[in-house]
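Subject: sequence -> structure tokens, single chain

Hey, anyone have a minute? Need the predicted structure for the following. Not urgent.
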Amino acid sequence: MKKYTIIVCDHIHNAGLDFLRNQNDIIMLDYSNLPKDELLTKLSEADVAITRSSTEVSEAFLNSVGKLKALVRAGVGVDNVDIESCSKRGIIVMNVPTANTIAAVELTMAHIINAVRNFPGANHQLKNDRVWKREDWYGTELKDKTLGIIGFGNIGSRVAARAKAFEMDIIAYDPYIKESIMIDAGIKPTKNIDDILKCDIITIHTPKNNETKNIITKNEIAKMKDGVILINCARGGLYNEDDILEAAKNGKIRWLGVDVFTKEPATSNPLLDLSNIYVTPHIGANTLESQEKIAIQAATIAVEAARGSSYPNALNIPIRESELPHYLKPYLELSQKLGFFISQIVKGATRTLNITCSGKIAPYVESLSTFAVVGALNHSLGDSINYVNALFVAKERGININIDTKESASSIYKNLITIQAVSAEDNISVSGCIFDEDKLRIVDINGFSMDIEPLGKMILFKNTDVPGVIGNIGKIMEKHNINIADFRLGRNDKSEALAMIIVDNNISDNILQELKKIEACISVSYVII
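Reply:
Had a minute. Here:
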């Protein structure tokens, strides 16, 4: 019987270790107590490694492995895993995305209840100061208060269900979830995040990406009620820490419940200095039940990967070169980038993705469509989306995936892939092809001819085709010290133009608002690939 070696790099629940020990074809080596520098000397033995947040899967780690073919992150986040370097080495990276759902939901509710009744303060006064002063601890009731939920996925929807039991009025904002799903759950949906900002209590349950990072800043706080309560048990950096600190100091935020921080461990974070900020040290997954689930799922996944039977929750399934023609490989990357690109410019929740391939790549449209869907969903779902579950998640979210082929692309392009995203508010298409075997290019956006690499920070500026527009754009860029790296322009037969502006600097919402004020402007979008 062939034996496989699985190394456990960080502490997991004994149930997971027992599962590994009971597999006849698995050699389990528990190195969770080893110093990390010593751990590196043991990695050459591993077929599969199980890690948590304590082990950095960096170049040093990867340079120490020998036959490693898979890595299991026992948890959701993979911030400590260099996925790109793993992919280059053919190492499949997997995570355990749902085992700690209930733990995170219940911690959120604990923070909400603490916020309205201040149990930590009352407990401290009685136990530590030995003072019995009931009049210091008037709280408020959850009943009839409004709860604003940003993100209505696996965790946010369950928080809503529990808040309903407290007879709260709940409003949810999630542009990637069908409104009918929220309505069926008895939740009021909104497409305008400003509706959330009017709530008594606000909690967030989204992945951290370019769209959600700093989703709450001083600008949003200014629109909130005086005495608002904010909760973050999702990811550090979703709320701007400097801005929420200032608002908590001046009383705009009455109470702030935080489990996650931009930099961890957060032992010197100034948020810890304020009495109206209740903190926990990133313990969203820290229940005995969730730790047991995480350990068992991680161990099960590791065994399946070691045997090569399957790679559940794989984030980077490598493609075997022998299985695909050489010309197709760059189109896999291109299709994913096109999906990611279009997800950032389409307005509203995507309801349909139409994927069309033509030319020699047409017979592989199903493989290409999987990569396209991963790209399209990754923008909103982050680490939870992968090549295995993408089509299932799309179906679950009510997104129709249609694939089609054409015999030939056009007289200009030998091969072409086109992705069309349709929402209740918008209809966007983008086409791409490969030049010189490996040069990825976007060649068309909604009928505007382009020739641009899908890489970097891009402003899409659509306008009526009149004089002076480029000059006005340049003045705004100069005003904000934004360097333009490239500027491409397409025109159509409707006297409209589309500029694709590649910039070296991050573009703020204020800059986008200034661009929108240009008289000829029709629309502005900002994309990062």
